[in-house]
Amino acid sequence: MYAMTGTLIAQAGKRDLLVNILVRASALVLTMPGCKAYIVLEDLKDEHAVAVFEMWEDKAAHDTSLQDPRVRSLIAEAMPILAGAPSGGEYRVATNL
Question: What are phi and psi of 45, to 5 degrees?
C-alpha cells in the first residue's frame, strides 16, 4: 500500500474554502479504483493549515487519479487560495488494515 500526507496553508480567511474543496476531492477520489482513504484534517494550532492523508493500493492508482479531469479541476480551484507550495511525504503502509 502507498500513502501520502500533505500540508496545505490557505491564505488568510480562506481555510474554510480550502477545506470545502478538499472534502469534495475526498468524496470524488474515494470512488476511484485503488483509493483506500482520503482524510482531510484541520490543524488545531494553525488556523490557516489543513492536512490531508491519502492511502492507495499503489502509487500507480494515485497517479492515475491525478489525470481525472474532475480531480484536475479541484486542484485548479484550490491553487489560487494557497499561501505557498504544499509540503508532505510519501510512505509505504506497514500495518495491515
Answer: -105, -15
